[in-house]
Amino acid sequence: MATLQLLQGYGSTLTDEAEIKEFLGRHGIQFERWNIPASIQALCANPTLDDVQKAAVLEAFRPQLDNLSENHGYISSDMVCLHPELPGLDDALANFDLEHFHTDDEVRFIVDGSGVFGFVSESGRRFLIEVHAGDYVVIPANAWHWFYLLENKTIKALRIFKDMSGWTPFYRDAEASS
Question: Against a cut of 0.85, is the pTM above it?
């Protein structure tokens, strides 16, 4: 279950799903909880997944993915599995722990593990949401954010796209992109 930490003058932490959803909604961020079918829970808990296993997880969410396609224009999805033994993990994560935005929505559904998305509100205040299995989040296009893994460096997530080219990160600090 997600935890929302409010920084810089907000001064509190939210754990209630309705409060988290309402707070994020005021900032244009969609948050929901999806059930993970019992039929794939053990599979999702495996440290790594091969392509066939990833396809099985994606298929378990076919109704939700079809709904997103039909109602919101998302046309493709895949699954990312990050874990400490993954070659180049720290280098890959270094691309996302700096403030950046994308020209397309960043849509994630967490099926295992955890991570943290950080945000900068229009007023410049910062807040963090720690996401866990069952958390679905839509970060709107052009929203400043960053992402990092927790100490165990493990997360499995569905990534859902309208256009893969819109997922290129644009960094606040021009030096970060070089």
Answer: yes
The token duo for 154 is: 């493990």
Query: pLDDT (tens digit, 9 = 90+) per residue, 31-60?
Result: 999 999 999 999 999 989 999 999 999 999
pLDDT tens for residues 82-104? 999 999 999 988 888 999 999 99
Beta strands in the chain (DSSP E): 3-6, 12-14, 30-33, 76-82, 100-101, 106-120, 126-132, 135-139, 145-149, 155-161, 170-171
What token pair was written down for 88? 């180049």
Q: What gap in Å lies between CA 46 and CA 16, rounded to an integer?
A: 29
Which two tokens mark 4?
Answer: 């929302």
Pick the closest to residue 77 from 92, 93, 89, 61 (CA basis).
61
Q: Residue 115 pairs with which residues in a beta bridge?
A: 131, 149
Q: Which fold has domain 3-163?
A: Jelly Rolls (2.60.120)
16 C-beta neighbours (distance < 10 Å), count? 12
Q: Where are the domains of the chain?
A: 3-163
CA atoms within 13 Å, Cβ hemisphere of 145: 28
Per DSSP, 118 falls in state E
Distance CA 129, CA 168 (A): 22
pLDDT at 9: 60
